[in-house]
Amino acid sequence: MAMFTNFKAAANAYGLFSGVFWGLSGVLLALLLKDSVLSSYFLIPIVLAFLNDMISCGYMFMYLVLQGKYKAIRSIPKNKKNGIIILAAIFGGPMGMSCYILAIQYIGVSYTATISAIYPAIGALISFFLLKDRIHLIGILGLILAVMCTMILGYSASTQTTSSWLGFLFAFICALGWSAEVVISSYGMNKDIPADIAYFIRQLSSSVGYLVIIILLVQFFPSVVHIFSNMALYSLLFATSLAATMSYFFYYKAISMLQPIRAMGLNITYTIWAVIFAYFLIDEPISVKLLLLCIGVSTGSFLTAANPRNIKKLILTLK
């Protein structure tokens, strides 16, 4: 019994820490964007997203080598099934992560994290139309809750300034990209692709995708030497990427130990953690309205993606 209790506690801790580290990574990205040189360029978020994923790819490469999976890395190009993960990476990286950082630049990390947390609900809709997955009554109610809370957030943002309206749009596109990534990557991992290998492929493919964009638009990009010549920014960039990598690592661990629904339910608490970290690290104000909408979006997204039977099991296991 004690072993089972410890297992459940560890599994829940992995899921919770995946949310904590993702919330932290968003705030660290916001700190990077506070640099006056970086914030003056519209396309700098794409450069930051590229560097973030490239460094994360390096972290994962070292982890896999230390785990003795070098042969698995070498066999990646030989497995045609990995193309599914590459496709998912395009949606999650160049589309999703770039818009996530752009949204942070315009409306701050608190609003961005809350709006982007609607991605599980959108993912459920994509699964319904493309994979013919049924959406139950609780899921429909959850979707309505998530959409309503997001609309209120978007209205609050769009009535302030034009840039805030753009920030909401970027956050919503981010949610679309991440939801497509979830549906496609979960389909790929069902094809016997290990989670850690899938994440490495995801980061590698995303980095290549960003590189292509940067090469095509190189004349519009500022020199990134400023990032590496400034020791504070240099260290912050590596810390940001490490936090994001830890988030995904814990998330996949939680998925392997828990049902995916419970892991997702713990992961999307990143909205709340982002608000808390933003308050302490970058002085973003916390309002009761924002917290309530934050909880509403997370709850609605969870209910949309969850199965009623799994919700009952979750309630029983928490007792």
From TrEMBL:
Pfam families reported in the protein's UniProt record: EamA (PF00892)
Span of domain EamA: 13-153, 166-304
Protein name: EamA domain-containing protein
Keywords (A to Z) from UniProt: Membrane, Transmembrane, Transmembrane helix
Transmembrane segments: 12-33, 39-64, 84-107, 113-131, 138-158, 164-187, 208-225, 231-251, 263-282, 288-306
InterPro entries named in the record: EamA_dom
Family of the protein in this entry: Belongs to the EamA transporter family.
Superkingdom, natural source: Bacteria
Coiled-coil intervals: none
